[in-house]
Amino acid sequence: TQDKMDADLEFFHSINVSPEICCFNAGHEWTEGFRKSVGQFLRRTR
Question: Residue 35: which domain range?
Fold first, then answer.
């Protein structure tokens, strides 16, 4: 929910972490957009 995301963001900012937010309207499906975002994340973490 939006309230949960806001609380999570507040926590991350309190510990000096800047998360990247990605929202997908896909339920439990791995859409092309989701796969692309995951791939970009994994390339950055190597």
Answer: 2-44
